[in-house]
Amino acid sequence: MVTASDVSSGEFAELAQLQQKITNSSIPADLRIKAQTMIDRAALSFKYHSQFMQFDVVASYIDWITSLPWESRSTDILDIEQAKQVLDKNHYGLSELKDRILEYLSVMKMNLDQAKLDPISKNHNFARAPILFFVGLVGTGKTTMAISIAEAMGRKLMRIPFGGMGSALDLRGESRVHPDAEVGQIMKSLRRAGTKNPVILLDELDRVAEHARADIMGVLIELLDPEQNVAFVDHYIDYPFDLAEVLFIATANNTNNISTAVMDRLEPIQMPSYSDDEKIIIGKSYVYPKVLAASGLTSDQLTIVDGVWPTIVRPLGFDSGIRTLERTIDGVCRKVARQIIEKKINKIILSEDNVKQFLPTW
């Protein structure tokens, strides 16, 4: 334990702050001993040598281990009706996918209820989650579905982009023996979330750099395997962290570049393309109200008649997702907003006669 007689006042203040972090944290007992040993060693170096070359490394390490949510959890919202309302509010159709999510929440709810009735038993595994894997073309709602799941469960959502990831160390971290070593993206996400049971979105698994694909897939096997991720080791932290309560959700446009071993640990769910009829409903009921509010317009200032929607949905041809639809509606709202600001009009009713004037030109 560091005492004021060990080091000078300035050095003692810095070491005392680290000591306080350890004292106030909930880190595991053996990791606490390891951190305490590092502080004691630093105190001795300051006492007999007036300096400690690796003090910044020690300070950074203790800051990290005391900031991780070793025991902190968010309380899951396991209200199936509320979850259904959230999913229906944010997504049209996709009934099979919604049913799968509600089934998972139902199993969690039943196991949690059983654990309350029989708290002594250790056989309850209500926290373990499947690894959902959304596969589909661009704009089909893969990322927004992950956002909705997190909202429905009342969990924090953390996103790790895999597009262009060039090293497995980006996920697992780098050993502290290397200069400029950093913690991996998994531990960074947990620290930002502040809980050990967030939803972590592994976005675009098929977009990793070619030269690093084998190494990254190797880390993913450990990360996504329920038998292994209970003791996931980040090279920087150098201590096992239990990821069993994390709900991992992965996305990809296709599965060609994902190894068989990783696919075996995922639960693939195909995200369908949208037909024109579906897009009309999505545009009217989901996209239009959101874009209208974002542009500062009201429904009195811009009205779109039903007969115009087929033209808005397909201005240039078929598109599997809804991003083009969002851009089209956004472009219409911008043009209307400009004319209102320039006092050319007070309101507009978009009809087949004038729709071409407001559609964006590419």
TrEMBL record:
SUPFAM superfamilies in alphabetical order: P-loop containing nucleoside triphosphate hydrolases (SSF52540)
InterPro entries: AAA+_ATPase (IPR003593), ATPase_AAA_core (IPR003959), Lon_lid (IPR054594), Lon_Prtase (IPR027065), P-loop_NTPase (IPR027417)
Domain AAA+ ATPase as annotated: residue spans: 128-276
GO MF assignments: ATP binding; ATP hydrolysis activity; ATP-dependent peptidase activity; serine-type endopeptidase activity
Any one biological process term the GO annotation gives: protein quality control for misfolded or incompletely synthesized proteins
Superkingdom of the organism of origin: Bacteria
SMART domains associated with the record: AAA
Signal peptide: none
Pfam family, one: AAA
Protein name (Swiss-Prot/TrEMBL): AAA+ ATPase domain-containing protein
Source organism: Candidatus Gottesmanbacteria bacterium RIFCSPHIGHO2_02_FULL_39_14
Taxonomic lineage from the root: Bacteria, Candidatus Gottesmaniibacteriota
